[in-house]
Amino acid sequence: MVPMGRLARAGPALGGAVLAGAARLLRVPHRGARPGADGDAAAPARWEVVTVDRPPEQVLPEGRWPEPLRRLDGAVEVRVRPAPGDRGTELAARPLAGVTPPTGLAAHLVGDDPGLLVRRTLRQIKQRVEAGEVLRADRSALDRPEVHG
Amino acid sequence: MRALCWVTAGELAVREVPDPELRNERDVIVRVRRSATCGGDLPLLAGRHPLLRPGDVLGAEFLGEVVEVGPGVRRHRAGDRVVVGASVACGGCWYCRQGLHSCCDNAHADLASADPDWARSDAGCFGRPRAAGGFAGGHAEYVRVPYADVSAFRVPDAVDDDRAVFAADVAPTGWLAAELGAVRPGDVVAIWGAGAVGQLTARAAVLRGAARVLVVDRHEERLRMAERHSDAEPLDYRRTDVAAELRDRSGGRGPDVCVVAVGTPPARSMADRFGGQHADRPDALREAVHACRKSGVVVVLGGTGGFVDAFPLGALTERRLTLRGAGRPDLRNVPMLLDRMARDELRTEHLATHRLPLAQGPEGYALFRDRADGCVRAVFAP
Ligand SMILES: [Zn+2]
Ligand SMILES: [Zn+2]
């Protein structure tokens, strides 16, 4: 058993007790593993993880999943723990095996790289918490066909 | 608005493109007054970036006037004359809070095709492909500047546009090189490359108290500039044995700090690379590693994504060298550098060897790329 400090396997709204969950050793699947890989539909997907430079209370206020993570409720599981060295919070998520994701997300979560949507979601949470907003790309000329150059 | 766009390998054109608009609360829109060519643009110009698209606007270094302000901006208002740092940075992530803005975690927008964790990204750069996380560049009439409170700096009245535009990238990069080398009073510092960044690295070393600063190049006029404006000793590697000169001028110890600021090396064939042949000069990095004193620091600058073969690893380990690198500047030194500009300690306008209207952007880049007509930097005004 590897000690991991405070570790939470949080549901969308489990209250303050969430962050005091028991430590547990996580199985790290080999590269490329995902639901259905190697014909094992029940194999858990790889955890995607970001470090957010804020304490867990700020990353998950009142123990709740922040947007846009809440949109993935029922489709992913989430793990939260303080990062070592006062570097904030390690926020991880992975698609739940064998769960039919909510409509609209299905294609993303079962596509070639279901981790992509999860990574992007985590990155957006990190930006929102650290920078106060999610940076949008410049609009390209192609987005505005009414303007001709 | 008009902007300098990439068209195809080796070809740029000034074209009509849509005006930028505020996309985030912390954005401002800047009306550009000056923009400078940058060595990091040359691989793009040559068409060596896979995600570059015709119509992408170039320009990493610019200065202008704030004309629109997002509701989340605190430090700027319309009418401010600002220079915009060449690293887009959020100011709130762990790296930004350590002052390492060029490593910002949040400088990427919603990447369409690339994933910041797993693919090459130009996040945090102006004048880089949007598909790689970049932002439209400053060779334009207007630019959108994200995280403006962090990335844009008010220019003191005493500093004119032609000087201040070099506070975007060149001056902070040169200062960063001296910082990474931990240059301290009494040091001997050698710099390979007397381009704009090499010259301001030399100046930074002098301002930090270096006893001797030597600059290695082959362009006569650049060496003379480094001598005149940075108090550096010029070494023309076509005429001198650089290794012997450096030993001689450092009491046989070797320079305490060696900085490689030669920019993007020209593309070489595989055979040339493995044979170590065909560089038009001895490999600067190898020379720096061999020249540096025991336990000294070698700093490599430049945004090249290339590989360097025949690296003298043995010299690095046996002589306990420290190797450090940087591609883009941090922002924390920009206000200090602007103050030094205002006090005339740091003069940069001589680097703008060619001042042209934006309409002549393609010609300016050709001069800059070919180092023709003594060109160090071309600076455009829309
Ligand atoms: Zn530059
Ligand atoms: Zn940041």
From TrEMBL, chain A:
InterPro entries: START-like_dom_sf. It comes from the Bacteria. This is Uncharacterized protein. It comes from Micromonospora arida.
UniProtKB/TrEMBL annotation, chain B:
One of its GO terms (molecular function) is metal ion binding. Residues 196-269 form the Alcohol dehydrogenase-like C-terminal domain. Its cofactor is Zn(2+). Pfam families: ADH_N, ADH_zinc_N. Residues 25-150 form the Alcohol dehydrogenase-like N-terminal domain. InterPro entries: ADH-like_C, ADH-like_N, GroES-like_sf, NAD(P)-bd_dom_sf. Keywords: Metal-binding, Zinc. The keyword Metal-binding applies. This is Glutathione-dependent formaldehyde dehydrogenase. PANTHER family: DEHYDROGENASE, ZINC-CONTAINING, PUTATIVE (AFU_ORTHOLOGUE AFUA_2G02810)-RELATED, ZINC-TYPE ALCOHOL DEHYDROGENASE-LIKE.
